[in-house]
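Holo prediction — zinc ion.
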Amino acid sequence: MATPYVSPAQDRQRRAVRPHLPMRPRWLCRVCAAPWPCQPARLLLLMEYRRDRVALSVYLAGCLFDATADLLTLNPRPEPSPGELFDRFLAWAAA
Ligand SMILES: [Zn+2]
């Protein structure tokens, strides 16, 4: 099946508006497939919550809680390290 032609500019625009959201239960980005929150997701979250960093931490703590449960179910051995998950979901937003 032929893929409709998408110009590089259109493609960039489409990526920019598509939110970098996590795909559960693996917690990979829907757009770039990196472990979520990927770099674009972090930037988008920082912009979205720039007036309320406490709310951002609360949101990310909820994600950490859900992700820990999902990832432990997926990979019981070796289980994901709590320190790594904390750094990935929460530590980056604290600065
Ligand atoms: Zn992404």
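READOUT: The chain has a mean pLDDT of 89.
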